[in-house]
Design goal:
alpha+beta; Immunoglobulin-like; 2 domains; seven-stranded mixed beta sheet; 1 helix
Length: 178
């Protein structure tokens, strides 16, 4: 056997062993301590698999459908009624429904089983994400609209059931600020 064939066989065997022993670390790059800032752009986690195309079994529910500026909105992330599924991770961002391309608006606070992060945008704490990969059935948080905001807010949430099963930018019901 030639030296180049032996080297090739050694490299292939080494690669197979490495992938076998470390395959889970390569296949799924989920962050158990929260979404990385790169996910702010398209809300897609770096899990190296495609998102689910079915309806999400999870929902983001605002506490009100209409309110005035200066009033916090409580947002609840939860399993849809009748489901016994849990989610491990989430990323939630609020958008001006009339112009979603302007990026995140408002600020999140008081995130149960989570934390705020600073996605690129005008305000700090403009997104919320998980802090661990424990199974969750419900997470609550407060959200405050930008000062003087009048319009309609849409919350979008990416839910990760696990590293290989997730739904991207699941829309909430709308909240009107008058």
């Amino acid at each position: 056997m030639s030296a180049s064939v032996s080297i090739f066989n050694y490299v292939c065997l080494s690669l197979v062993l490495y992938l076998t022993l470390n395959g889970q670390n390569i296949a799924i790059q989920g962050a158990s301590n929260g979404s990385p800032l790169q996910a702010c752009v398209d809300m897609v986690p770096d899990h190296h698999v495609d998102a689910q195309t079915s309806a999400s079994p999870f929902v983001a529910t605002p506490s009100v459908t209409s309110t005035t500026n200066g009033t916090d909105v409580k947002l609840t992330l939860a399993t849809k009624s009748g489901s016994d599924l849990t989610f491990k991770g989430f990323l939630v961002i609020a958008f001006n429904h009339a112009n979603q391309t302007e990026g995140p608006i408002g600020t999140f606070s008081s995130v149960s089983d989570g934390q705020t992060i600073n996605c690129p945008g005008v305000s700090a704490n403009n997104a919320a994400t998980h802090i661990n990969s424990a199974n969750k059935t419900s997470v609550t948080m407060d959200w405050t609209a930008p000062e003087g905001f009048v319009g309609t807010v849409l919350f979008k949430t990416t839910f990760a059931q696990n590293g290989g099963v997730f739904w991207v930018a699941t829309p909430s019901s709308l909240v009107n600020f008058v």
